[in-house]
Specification:
Number of strands: 0
Distance between the termini: 74 Å
Shape: elongated
Strand content: under 5%
Structural class: mainly alpha
Oligomer: single chain
Helix content: over 70%
Number of helices: 7
Radius of gyration: 23 Å
Largest sheet: none
Order of helices and strands: HHHHHHH
Length: about 130
Amino acid sequence: MSQPAQKAVTQSLVSRYVNKETLKYVFTTHFWGPVSNFGIPLAAIYDLKKDPELISGPMTTALILYSSVFMKFALTVQPKNYLLFGCHVVNSLAQTGQGFRFVNYHYLGGADAKTTDAAASKPAAPQ
């Protein structure tokens, strides 16, 4: 792409997305609230790789309920806050995954399978 054409494309994109309305939206709580709230689902997604023994069942349940309530809230406020809604959808899905891991580990034999696997992989003692 030639230099003048590239400059025209860049100016077109900047004028389309960096305007008064966009800047006005970025400096509101409708934007920064959900952005800062995304730490919760990101932490839950990161924790999907950790040991299920560390998962708190009551806290996971509370976070699923919290996200469900705020999904409804995000669509009730005016104007509708789709960014907040998306944040809580992701959090709800991540926490549900954690909840399944918790139930599997504590109630469906995951802990027993873990100890059996650990014992089977342990080398035999020399005689």
